[in-house]
Automatic annotation (TrEMBL):
Enzyme category, top tier: hydrolase
A Pfam family annotated for this UniProt entry: TRCF
Keywords: ATP-binding, DNA damage, DNA repair, DNA-binding, Helicase, Hydrolase, Nucleotide-binding
EC number: 3.6.4.-
Domain Helicase C-terminal: 115-269
Single annotated GO MF: DNA binding
Protein's GO biological process: DNA repair
Protein name: Transcription-repair-coupling factor
SMART domains: HELICc, TRCF
Location of the Helicase ATP-binding domain: 1-94
SUPFAM superfamilies associated with the record: P-loop containing nucleoside triphosphate hydrolases, TRCF domain-like
Length: 465
């Protein structure tokens, strides 16, 4: 069901839907019409969910209260993403790209004729095709003539949403078959276009597009094993608004394949989450910030569900004088860095830490020394926050670990002494106020030694059975 289907065919389909003769109904926004009645609707699948408004989606859900909804999107809108983050909706991700795909090379440039000419000629020289997006129907034919003058041997075609069905089909067939090699178009090509030979796209007035829309537009190229290029053209970089600059920078930052989720997260921070129950799908929460807002919302939802979140014990931080950070060469993207720092900070067990370290190793490759130290520092923090340890501190040239009274009362002192001596002969221990105090030298390997002392000291616990 769409605007190109004849009225008589639409009436026939509508009658069949009412009688339950149609199993699967596929359509555009036309499905939202008041005359569409389905006898037994069980599943609603919304493709390209970011193109639908809240009112559209809620209207479809009203058709049946118990309808299951599956929303598909490369870049979820802020409100939908927020709902998944707080547990209202479930979220699944497809992270593996098709075989032999390479990332689209993305550039933000000021518009100039020499660049346009060079870019188009370079793509045509390798027998490729070009999309030129000019989202103004009134000026689109003038733009097409300008490109024809810049590159006289180019075969230029035009496509926009105000053309008739047959005309659009003819243009797209010509472009797909290679009879045209430069398509000047509007955002009509944003979705549903798959032309592997088109591997360069130029976007005029890129500052006027939303983040998700730019990501979708960029996705029209790079659909084969050829290197693809996207040029986001702006009139003057200095005159861009702060939000437009952030959007364009985000598209450049997240150029790798499968970045839709990260783009959506950045969009969430730029635009805000919108209303949970109201019509706004975006909107910034200036007073508390997005992270705090989502945390508060999650607590409120859990409270309504009767789920009481146990209070998280504040972890004692290890004041260790070491270089522990994520370098630029390892994770160039700020979003990835912040995500890593936040995840490491939230981890509360050795098992979680080991699993996350393996995940980072798998995603980013060999860990630099400073990142390894970051994980070691967190490993130490988890150990000193156990009930066996009362205090950890670094003195001048020494590290001092004070074990708790409970641990000290249930440990085999001789065995503990043997274990510590096997680690280093420079380690000393004494028994004061019913607590065992261990001192070890502050060397270059002091952090690793402290971790080994804390981990292996558990071996000296008496077996009470």
């Amino acid at each position: 069901m769409n605007r190109f289907v004849t009225a008589s065919k639409q009436r026939e389909t509508i009658e069949n839907c009412k009688e339950g003769k149609v199993d699967v109904l596929i359509g555009t926004h036309r499905l939202l019409g008041k005359d569409i009645k389905l006898k037994d609707l069980g599943l609603l699948i919304i493709d390209e969910e970011q193109r639908f408004g809240v009112e559209h989606k809620e209207k479809i859900k009203e058709l049946k209260a118990s309808v299951d909804v599956l929303s598909l999107s490369a870049t979820p809108i802020p409100r939908t993403l927020q709902m998944s983050l707080v547990g209202i909706r479930q979220l699944s991700q497809l992270e593996t790209p098709p075989d032999n795909r390479v990332s689209v090379q993305t550039y933000v440039v000021e518009k100039n004729s020499a660049l346009i000419k060079e870019v188009i000629e370079r793509e045509l020289s390798r027998d490729g095709q070009v999309f030129y997006l000019h989202n103004n129907v009134e000026e689109i034919y003038h733009t097409a003539r300008t490109i024809q003058e810049l590159v006289p041997y180019a075969k230029v075609a035009v496509a926009h949403g105000q053309m008739g069905k047959e005309e659009i089909e003819d243009v797209m067939m010509n472009f797909t078959s290679g009879e045209a090699n430069v398509l000047v178009c509007t955002t009509i090509i944003e979705t549903g276009i798959d032309i592997p030979n088109a591997n360069t796209i130029l976007v005029e007035h890129a500052q006027n597009f939303g983040l998700s829309q730019l990501y979708q537009i960029k996705g029209r190229v790079g659909r084969s094993n050829r290197l693809a290029y996207a040029y986001l053209m702006v009139p003057n970089k200095k005159q861009l608004s702060e939000i437009a600059s952030k959007r364009l920078q985000a598209i450049k930052d997240f150029a790798q394949l499968g970045s839709g989720y990260k783009i959506a997260m950045r969009d969430l921070t730029i635009r805000g989450a919108g209303d949970m129950l109201g019509p706004e799908q975006s909107g910034f929460i200036d007073t508390v910030g997005i992270d705090m807002y989502i945390e508060m919302l999650e607590e409120a939802i859990n409270e309504k569900k009767g789920i009481i979140k146990p209070e998280r014990k504040e972890m004692v931080k290890a004041n260790v004088q070491v270089d522990s950070y994520i370098p630029e060469v390892f994770a160039p993207d700020d979003f990835d860095k912040i995500s890593m720092y936040q995840t490491i900070d939230r981890i509360e067990s050795q098992e979680e830490l080991r699993a996350y370290e393996e995940q980072i190793l798998d995603e980013f490759g060999q860990l630099p020394k400073t990142v390894k130290v970051l994980f070691e520092k967190k490993r130490l923090e988890i150990l000193i926050n156990s009930e066996d340890v009362e205090k950890y501190r670094e003195l001048k040239g020494q590290i001092e670990i004070t074990f708790s009274k409970m641990f000290s009362a249930h440990v085999d002192g001789v065995k503990l002494f043997e274990i510590l001596t096997s680690i280093s002969k420079d380690i000393t221990l004494r028994y004061t106020d019913q607590k065992i105090i261990v001192k070890l030298p502050q060397t270059n390997d002091g952090l690793k030694m402290a971790i080994e002392v804390l981990m292996r000291s558990k071996e000296a616990k008496k077996n009470e059975n």
